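Worked problem 6 (solution included).
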Amino acid sequence: MSFWQDKKLSEMSTEEWESLCDNCGKCCLHKLEDEDTGKIYYTSVVCKLIDLKTCRCTRYLERTRLVPDCLDLKQHDFALYSWLPATCAYRLLSDGQDLPVWHPLVSGTLESVPNAGVSIRSFAMKENGADDLQDHIIEWLD
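Solution. The predicted structure is:
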């Protein structure tokens, strides 16, 4: 049995926790919330710190200091993960589901993420190129 099937998120070591990230980059997309309904809308605009080729943060250890809106998921209640994309390992495991076949821990390769069409690599743009975030709302086909 794999560690993610055997342990709760709260029981995982830092190394195990970090390995759950599939580097899709979706959590680094800017999001808008409808104040009336609470619905979260993702945009194609991504944080200035992300490397669009790897979909990884270029300043990961400093991200929450450099970008005040950046969240450290490990610091939050797992029940609040509903804003994460349906494909996110943290959300899936929090909801009692398993990792998908394209997840690097299952497939054995990081390229399985863009190959499955889950990565933001093909469409995201840096925030300095976007004027109005509402013009960049996207819809997932999870």
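Discussion: Residues 102 and 116 are 6 Å apart (CA to CA).
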